[in-house]
Write a structure and sequence with these properties.
Order of helices and strands of chain A: HHHHHHHHHHHH
Strand content of chain B: 25-35%
Number of helices of chain B: 8
Shape of chain A: globular
CATH architecture of one domain in chain A: Orthogonal Bundle
Strand order of the largest sheet of chain B: 6-7-8-3-9-10
CATH superfamily of the largest domain in chain B: P-loop containing nucleotide triphosphate hydrolases
Helix content of chain B: 10-25%
Largest sheet of chain A: none
Shape of chain B: elongated
CATH architecture of the largest domain in chain B: 3-Layer(aba) Sandwich
CATH superfamily of one domain in chain A: MetI-like
Distance between the termini of chain A: 32 Å
Oligomer: heterodimer
Order of helices and strands of chain B: EEEHEEEHHHEHEHEEHHEEEEEEEEEE
Radius of gyration of chain B: 24 Å
Largest interface: A-B, 25 and 36 residues
CATH class of the largest domain in chain B: Alpha Beta
Strand content of chain A: under 5%
Structural class of chain A: mainly alpha
Number of helices of chain A: 12
Number of strands of chain B: 20
Number of strands of chain A: 0
Distance between the termini of chain B: 24 Å
Helix content of chain A: 55-70%
CATH topology of the largest domain in chain B: Rossmann fold
CATH class of one domain in chain A: Mainly Alpha
Chain lengths: 286, 373
Amino acid sequence: MRLKRPTSTNLILNLLVGICALILAFPLVWIVMTSLKQQAEVMTWPPTFLFVPTLDNFRVLFDVAQAGATSYGTIKVDFLTPITNSVVIALGSVIISLLIGVPAGYVLARRDIPLKEDIAFFILGFRFAPVLLVVIPLFSVFQAIGLYDTYIGMIWVYQVVTLPMIVWLSRSYIEEIPKDIEEAAAMDGAKPVRVVLHIVLPLLKPGLIGASLLIFLLAWHNFALGLILSSTKAPVTVALLKLLNPGVQFYPVMAAGLVVTMVIPVILIVIGQRHLERGLTFGAVK
Amino acid sequence: MADVRLEGLSKAYGTIQVLRNIDLAIDHGEFVVFVGPSGSGKSTLLRMIGGLERISGGRLLIDNEVVNDVDAADRNLGMVFQSYALYPHMTVRENLAFPLRMAKLSKAEIDTRVAQTASLLQMDHLLDRKPRHLSGGQRQRVAIGRAIVREPKVFLFDEPLSNLDTELRVQMRVQISKLHKQLGNTMIYVTHDQIEAMTMADKIVVLKDGVIEQVGSPHDLYHNPASRFVAGFIGSPKMNFLGGKVEAAHESGMDVRLDAGAVVCVPVEPDKSLVGKPITLGIRPDDFSPSSAEKDIAIDLDLDLDLDFVEHFGSVTYVYGNAGKEAVVAKASKPDPLKGSGKVRLAASPADCHLFMTDGKALRRLHAPANWN
């Protein structure tokens, strides 16, 4: 039976939903609009909603050769390098986090080790700490040992952001797999390594794809680490900031950069979602 | 051949002792059932045999080889879990093939064995389904199939039927018994259901609080329970226990005056030291019959029962009531005079009675029925 609500209540509820959506969508729409405008149109007040869209801003971002000949005067933007940097750093961080974090999560989920909960909480604690806590001391250390402005250094330090998440998520996913299944595999003659390879990992796959997407986004959007610990290997978030030169402000180009920055994770999520098979463990027990 | 020997096996979690000094010999081809209330340690014992639980003390031998420190994977045992524990990401075929793949058999060999097992358990048509598309009974069959496909030395069953409904449980009980006859392997089966134990076992091991109360054939346990606990646990409805006092001990048994009034001479091994001491008389509901005038009052155990209610099962009727202060259940073969309430006179042969001392131990009966076999 459907609950009947008065039309006025319905109207108000819909209105509230609409307002929420508007608040959330406004910056997004604004940035996309800005990225398609000319510099002059961006500055007009009241803002114009009807304009001839141009892809010139996107061309400026990537076309290094012709960058000098734009209507913005002489600017040289190389946006491809920071994107490459971000992809390498974020992907590398995900892979390293998976390699270290999943086994750690497995131990925390399945084995009785001393101080287990304390270790788990300590790892999670990094999620609460401000990133700068790590960055400041690391700055001089990285410079001293030659990790400053290297991919390896960046991927390493990004573990502060990504590793705790993977450890915690994989721990809870592994706890969801009934222990009986692993024991059944052992009884069936599978050694621990093969139990993990044949049973645990296939069952973890959907969860791990989801978790990987999540930490990829965390890594992709990180700003403070790249700002302080890199220069030529700076990620896209830092490159965006550099578009805000003092004096000349290329708002439309920056908006185009933002759109590109947003599009890449969106594409990944769309691809990844298809692998997220839900309720895979259903039917195993009971 | 695969026999299993447990020598002084014990298990402790920290300072908590869950199993103490378990000695047991299981011969090749035997169907052994571990039975006991929850917390008695029966599942832990099975898991120790399987290698899923570390052994804290004692020795476990399979085929005269100590396997205390052998991995579960290397013990070559098959196990069926209460939760079935099927691999959800694999089809039935892949589930059955998994133990064979782990044993590195050839593809052709795997295919043959899977097909054989599937037809043995009548599940050829299910081979390409995933576990989530199977019913409870079908999942149970796959779990059993996965345990037998590798032809292990010993099969372990951990309460495999407790998630099934009554009808399926009876069916699967029969199927497992048949399977045991067909395969002839050693099987160790854990259950809290005494009916499963009675119907399937060659040998029942009754566990209580981490120690073995009694080991014996179903017939033994039913007719010669070693303790009041075993007597109460085996048999349904439960054995009646009546309080009383020993009046005399002589060659033909012990005279007991029941709190309910009657005096019975129970043919058990006499023990003069018990004269004057309190004792418990046990009598199974099925050993009662409605008293009639023809019977010799002096020989029979007679009880006047205040009827509480009557349960009709169709083939059999049980009456519930009180004799003095004690609750009594009795079988009534003829339900006609036993409708509603009132008084009923029950009679039983003293030869069917059991006596238990205050510590719960039974006195040996002199005329227990001969073995069924």
